[in-house]
Amino acid sequence: MLALFYTVPLIWAAVSDYRKRIIPDWTWISILVLGLASAFLLPVPPLYERIAGFFLPGLCLLWLAVKFGGVGGGDIKLTAAMGFAFGLYALAAILFLALLPACVYAKATRQRSVPLAVFLCVGAFGYAAALLAFHLI
């Protein structure tokens, strides 16, 4: 139920990233704060998985940004906040679900840079739909 609170900042980040290529700071901060609140309220995912979800993808994207460019600071912060909120394994699933639409968008628009927040949002909703479908079956 707490996951519903993530929808507003995720959608706002996606729309803003698509229109202006900027992710507002309040979006990733609110996701991080909600993740902190849920860490105290819910035992799943465990804290070590949340910490790994915060650092590993964030550091990988930071390395990509420094080495190759094309990854913005807002993308790094949003991914790190989502990693803490959802945990490392859930973030891996979200990134997997975001990969195909991002590649299709990049190929269709012939852009080398994509608004990552849009596809993180798509991946998060796809992950939530998959969880919901498996719980209903």
Descriptive notes:
It holds the Pfam family Peptidase_A24. GO terms for molecular function: aspartic-type endopeptidase activity. Residues 5-106 form the Prepilin type IV endopeptidase peptidase domain. With 137 residues, the chain is an all-alpha fold. The protein has one domain (7-136). The protein has 6 helices and no strands. α2 runs parallel beside α4, α3 packs antiparallel against α4 (73-86) and α4 (73-86) packs antiparallel against α5 (88-109). It is globular, with a radius of gyration of 14 Å. The two termini are 18 Å apart.
Distance between the termini: 18 Å
Structural category is mainly alpha
SSE sequence, one letter per element:
HHHHHH
Cα-atom Rg, whole angstroms?
14 Å
Counting H and I runs of at least 4 residues, what is the number of helices?
6
Helix content: over 70%
Average of per-residue pLDDT values: 89
List how many beta strands DSSP finds.
0
Which stretches are low in confidence, meaning pLDDT under 50 for 5 or more residues running?
Answer: none
Largest sheet: none
Subcellular location: Cell membrane
GO molecular function: aspartic-type endopeptidase activity
Transmembrane segments: 26-44, 51-69, 81-104, 116-136
Membrane topology: Multi-pass membrane protein
